[in-house]
# Entry
Amino acid sequence: MNNIVHKFKFAAAVALTAFSATTFAQSDAWPSRAITIIGGFPGGAGTDIYARKLGDLLTKSLNVPIVVDSKTGAGGNIASDLVARSAPDGYTYLLGTAGTHAINAALYNKLSFDVERDFTHIALLGDVPNVLLINPKKHPDIKTCADLLAAVRAKPGSFNYSSTGNGASTHLSAAQFANAAKIDIVHVPYRGQGPAMSALLGGDVDLFFNQSAPAIASVKGGRTMALAVTSSQRLAALPDVPTAAEACKLPGFESSTWYGLFGPAKLPAEVAKKMSDAVLKIVTTPEFKTWLIDTQGITPAADSSPAAFMRVHQADIKKWAEIVKVSGAKVD
# Structure
C-alpha cells in the first residue's frame, strides 16, 4: 500500500513539474501569435482611437499583430465580462475606463464580474476630461459658460443634455456640473458617442459633456462650440477654452476619468510584466505624450505602472460611488 502511495506522489510531482515547465516555456515564448485588445465602445469613441494607436505601435514592438475589437453594450460591461472570462494566456486584453471599472460597480445592481478581483492591472493610460459643448446654430447668443448658466436659470428645466448612456462619464460629468452650479437640466441618454453627438448637432438637445478626443475634433471642425473643459487645467488642444472652475465660477470643480489596460485575472506574472513593459515603453515616449496632449486632450499618467494603476483604480471606486449616489443614476 505504501508503495502505491509513493508511486502516486512521485507521478503527481512529475506531472506538476512538467506542467510548471510547460507554463514557463509558454510564458517565455510570449508573444507567439496575434494579441487582441477589446474595447467596450464603438468606433470613433475615445477608447477606440486610443486602442488603435496603441495597437499599431505594439504591433511594431512585439512583432505580432494587435487586433482591436469592439464589443459594445451595457456601458462596456459586455467587453469587460468577455475579458474577465478569457484564458489568462496573455493574448486578450481590455482597454477599460473609470466608467467600466469604477462607475459601473456603483451603477449596476449586479455585475457578472468583479471589477478588481477578475482583472490584472497592466498600465494606466491617461486622464480623460470632458468638454462642455453646445450647438452654436441652436444657441447663437450663448458664447460663454456664464451666458449658459444665465439662460438655464431663467428657465429651469427647459435645457437638456445628451450622454453616451445612463451612468456614463458624459452623464455623471453633467450631473456633477448641475449639482455644483445648482441648476436644473434634463438628462437624455443615447446609445454611444455617435447618437449623442448627432442629437446635439441636430438640435434635439442643448448640451453635451463629451469626452475630450471626439469633442476636440467637433470643435476644430466648427460643428460645436466649447464653453469649458472639466479638467483642472486648460487643454493644450483647446488652449482658448477655459476650465469649468474658471469659466462657470465653480471653484475646485473637476470631472475626469481614465483609460487603463487590463488583462484577465491569473495572468502569469512574466507575461503581465512583458506586456506592461511594452506598453509603458510606448506611452512614456515624448512623441506619444505629444499625441495624447495635442490631439486627444488626454493628460499622460504621472505613473503608468501596474502598482500606480491599482492605487488609482481602488481610489476611484470609492470616489465614483459617491458621485453616482448624488446623481441618482441606477441601471438594473
Residues 2-29 form the longest helix (28 residues). The chain has a mean pLDDT of 91. Residues 129 and 192 are 17 Å apart (CA to CA). Residues 11-128+257-327 form a domain with the D-Maltodextrin-Binding Protein; domain 2 fold (CATH 3.40.190.150).
